Amino acid sequence: MSTPLNSTKTTAAFFAQSAIAFGVSFLGLLFGICYLPLDMWQRLFLAMAGLFLVSSTFGLAKTVRDMQEASTVRVRIDEARIDRLLNEHDPLRTFTAASS
């Protein structure tokens, strides 16, 4: 029994829009850090917070994607097949048959 692949692919336009929005917002953050009238330690704090925000955003996006991917029917069917195979497999059955 074959299961249809129901993969949802993003369009090139959506990918481009997302990449441009990320680039513009990151450049805006860097511009603000460089040109705000702040002391050096305040600039470094904002830079550290900005880099942490960017890295945690990527981590959150990956987690959300993985959770959504794990809930698809295809993945659940594959997990059920693997569970069935593991339950049917008895490693001692072949050993006891060979020793008799």
Architecture overview:
By secondary structure, the chain is an all-alpha fold. The protein has one domain (13-89). Helices cover 80% and strands 0% of the residues. The protein has helices spanning 12-35, 40-70, 73-88, 91-99. The longest helix is centred in the middle third of the chain and has 31 residues, at 40-70. The mean pLDDT is 83. The chain crosses the membrane at residues 12-38, 44-61.
* Structural class category: mainly alpha
What is the end-to-end distance?
A: 37 Å
Overall mean pLDDT score?
A: 83
- State the oligomer: single chain
Our estimate of the beta-strand percent is under 5%
Helix content: over 70%
Number of helices: 4
Which sequence of SSEs, written as H and E, runs from N to C? HHHH
What count of structural domains?
A: 1
Tally of DSSP β-strands: 0
Shape: elongated
Structure in a nutshell:
With 100 residues, this protein is mainly alpha-helical. It contains four helices and no strands.
List key phrases describing it.
YiaA/B two helix domain protein, membrane, 100 residues, 4 helices, transmembrane, YiaAB, transmembrane helix, mainly alpha
Question: Topology of this structure?
Answer:
Elements: H1 12-35, H2 40-70, H3 73-88, H4 91-99
